[in-house]
Amino acid sequence: MRSLALVRLLALGAMLQARARGWASTLQNYVIVTPVYNTVHVRSQCACEAQCRTNDTCTAVTYDAVSDVCFLSNATGSSLTTRHLLEAVTYTKFSYVPAPTDMFLASTWSKNGTRANQVKICAEENGIPLIIRTTSELETAKQLIDAYGHFGVFGNYAFMSARDEEGNRDLMWPDGTKVFGSVFSPASMTGGSGPAMVLKANGQVEPNLDEKE
Question: Pick from 2, 90, 99, 115: CA 20 to 30 A from residue 29's CA?
Answer without folding.
Answer: 2
